């Protein structure tokens, strides 16, 4: 097997891999070679994206990190929590109050129990300095009707220890071993403490401990931290041990389930889009970070937004893309930059990002509170369908995003986004919305809370610099008797997306490094995922097209892939026109398209090659709960063909 193909197998069998993964990095590397080979394309009849925990809609709440960094205190956290309740934000869905890095003092060496810094959390001193508990803190939050979140790391040490400068407050104290506050080697003990004993409901698990403590790190060389051979090399996917990272996160998921018999928890993965987490994060936890940290700057917003915006098919109820917490209130999103602050909120809502406020709410102006409290926009984000917005128009300057909301296919949300620092005109067409061009389209402005004059065909809008207009639209769908799969990304899971060699996405906005300025040679985005499954686009972002025939709707994916599709009782038939996409670089492979219902073959295409006209597939879905769409090439290669499920739809 070629190395690339071996990697394909590795990706395809991660659950099996995770079992029995040793906890040391060295042995985890050794495990990679012994990866069992399974048939990833076999129809299973099961939805495999994560559905444990409680994240049927994107979690909402508040986190200490963007507000206070490691300088958090119990009083500061509770101040914002109180304002969330008193202002009515809690009633609108902001529920999780999360403490991030900085809460810990040390790990007690007699029994490995984590100790809280009682100077920061006075209520934790339940039995003097040595007997600490965050239970009084979570009790307070629970009595307020809120939920409580905590933070840890995959490795032995956390991000503040890896990257904090000499003046970082509240770094863990004591000996090298006492300062090992991360989960590594303590997964069951810590998860049980945080959830069973202390009563937390949410955990974010960072990855700095498995990234920044290699033998060549200054901190390790100075003897202040123990070496842990890195599992993640942010610059090199080939030097990253994908199965080991996934294995550690999977062990945590297992412990979370065991420590939370009522299932009331949220598991937030923070691997920043590294380790090909795009492909598997959705199978392991409720949230998965798609990029490095957001900063309060416009260009960083573009970077982070881009890392999630083309990943609609990877987000579903229970498993969401996370482009990072809100930075509204700070820097270029502060009370003097309300246009930018509103854009940030509208965009995060449209792509089903978690809405976690990162601001000291005791300082928030009424205008900022109004942004957080916009009920119509919150409702888009919290829609039960869980359909992340799909890009209907894409450019470096302006974008149009469309989001399916509610059960009525005549209604959709639409956002017009001006990424630039100049005013721009945007033409929105009925076609972008997949509405008939000869029927009126109505728009309701969700910022102004006002109706616009209806239009037919198309309408022109002027956007101020950095402005996002956001509307609920209604019109007459082109497809009258069902819905396109690409409009229902919350019900489509690329269980195997065919990516053999994970690559960084070249279309993610490249900003000047927020941390290094222009030192070095500049960062290309390390976020892997280029070439994954796309709604209404080819895997590489082009128009869907088979033998010259363009498709406005459809799923673009690589060969040797399997999509799972949740079916509702009213869906009676599946239809699509399939073939090798004209964008393919592999023009020799023959690909067979098969449709399964609850694990049984319903219909199959001929083997189809580049240039062959699309073949129509139609399958009766009577009684079927789960459809699987499998595209198989007879000769799998490291450069799989791009294929198209054109006009794929569930019909009544
Ligand atoms: C990483 C994470 C951030 C935050 C910090 C804490 O950088 O990505 O969200 O948790 O660590 O140190």
From TrEMBL:
Reaction catalyzed: Hydrolysis of terminal, non-reducing alpha-D-galactose residues in alpha-D-galactosides, including galactose oligosaccharides, galactomannans and galactolipids
Q: Which residues, if any, are the signal sequence?
A: 1-30
Task: State the UniProt keywords alphabetically.
Answer: Disulfide bond, Glycosidase, Hydrolase, Signal
By sequence similarity, the record places it as follows: Belongs to the glycosyl hydrolase 27 family.
Upper lineage ranks? Bacteria, Pseudomonadati, Pseudomonadota, Alphaproteobacteria, Caulobacterales
Molecular function via GO: alpha-galactosidase activity
Which Pfam families does the entry link to? Melibiase_2, Melibiase_C, NPCBM
Source organism (scientific name): Asticcacaulis excentricus (strain ATCC 15261 / DSM 4724 / KCTC 12464 / NCIMB 9791 / VKM B-1370 / CB 48)
User: Which biological processes are named by the entry's GO terms?
Assistant: carbohydrate metabolic process
| Domain Glycosyl hydrolase family 98 putative carbohydrate-binding module intervals | 512-652
Q: What is this protein called?
A: Alpha-galactosidase
EC id: 3.2.1.22
